[in-house]
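Slide 14.
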Amino acid sequence: MKIQRIRALYWSATGNTKKVVRYMAHCFSLPVLEQDFTLPDARKESIVCSKEELVLIGLPTYAGKLPNKIMPFVKEKIQGNSTLAVPVVTFGNRNFDHSLAELCILLKENHFIPIGACALSCQHAFSSRLAYARPNESDWEELDHFLMNVQKKLDQGPPFDFAVPGDAKAPYYFPKKEDGSPARVLKAKPIVDKVLCTQCRVCAHLCPMGSIDTMDPSLTPGVCIKCQRCIHQCPQKARSFQDPEFLSHVKMLEAHYTNPRANQFFF
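Slide 15: predicted structure.
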């Protein structure tokens, strides 16, 4: 099977997953078709991939699995045709738990053939103290070595069997507070400093869920998945989380998960 093109697919709220998948795509000496399905409009149409493509698809890990509000799009609208694929997940220095296993299963069900997979530790969206400035030079070197092995598998041909840890049917990780008790963060939403906010509406236009009111961006009537994109992208730094249980969860992560976690590669 001769691969004619790389298709780079990703959902990336704060940019790290995008950075990883784009880097991988341009390591191959082939044309690249890049598709970012982070915003709602990009998830309206199906994505159908051909046999002549190698698909690199990346998503972040949320609570140990794929983002639950994005998973239906992957399941229902990304389809292969015996298409070779490399599933990629990023995680914020705690653990990728079951997210990679979940992505592998979804792709197989949608007529893709995974030939390798990886989980990359990246700076956490909640705190720069978790995997600060990752991916770094060492991470890119590890990724280069992994891609060399992927290329060898492409050159050798099937069988492409490999295994990844995790259980696609496992429940989501439940966040904890500093004292180890459950942190109930489901209803937490960003607070807007109305003195700093200039009503530029960047947050509303970039929200992956389309949940921020475009007329009054201090309001978030839709679901918030805590992706932090509005906070990272606000030019005035006018948005923040002030929910006590959410902040306690962040402190727990900072207390236990600052030591660099290893990337994982499977092929």
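Speaker note: The two ends are 18 Å apart (CA to CA).
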